Amino acid sequence: MRIVIAEDNALLREGLILLLTSSGHEVVADVAAGPEVLPALLEHRPDAAVLDVRLPPTFRDEGLRAAVAARKELPDLPILVLSQYVEETYAAELLAQGAQGIGYLLKDRVGRVDQFLQALDRVADGGTALDPEVVSQLLTRKASAKPLLSLTPREREVLELMAQGKANGTIAAELVVTERAVSKHIGSIFAKLGLEPDDGSVHRRVLAVLAYLEGNGTR
């Protein structure tokens, strides 16, 4: 996989490069400032991008704004965002462009190398990898919406786990229920949100739910 990295912390940036190259990937470019991100992505057109949210010159949200701009220029570019915090406004804008191939992980929650690499692979394959805290805040933003109010507490739990990119079997194990029960909850969620359940992957269903939550309406 060809990857572009944007990270201002030199130690972390070099660590990411070493980790990715030792895992068989190719880092085609690494940048350390917000204005450098989009030009590097447009020049190299990588298979995926790993971007820190807060980059020079202001250390606010340059990386996430660059991700939003990149998805406008390269709609199919898989992006994995790393952050110390949930930048809610831009996270919502990034997802509103289409959540396919999007990851948003909090650095403190990426505790193991294998978790990070699995999240990157999932995003590169067009799936989602959203930190539970990101999902929680985005759902809270829409909590007053009438369709969400109609969800039962269990359905909200299932929805949050779906949005994290988890498969039905994993959801069933975490909630200590059967996969059949999870499937029934998912069907109910789609019915209440006005989204037709499709026969595609869990990721596509998750993307539809996230699109609805971020104001894109039903399909």
Automatic annotation (TrEMBL):
The modification 4-aspartylphosphate is found at residue 52. Gene3D superfamilies: 3.40.50.2300. Keywords: DNA-binding, Phosphoprotein, Transcription, Transcription regulation. Pfam families: GerE, Response_reg. InterPro entries: CheY-like_superfamily, NreC/VraR/RcsB-like_REC, Sig_transdc_resp-reg_receiver, Tscrpt_reg_LuxR_C, WalR-like. It comes from the Bacteria. The keyword Nucleotide-binding does not apply. Residues 144-216 form the HTH luxR-type domain. Residues 2-122 form the Response regulatory domain. The keyword Cell membrane does not apply. PANTHER family: TRANSCRIPTIONAL REGULATORY PROTEIN NARL-RELATED, TWO-COMPONENT RESPONSE REGULATOR. This is Response regulator transcription factor. It comes from Streptomyces laculatispora. The lineage of its organism: Bacteria, Bacillati, Actinomycetota, Actinomycetes, Kitasatosporales.
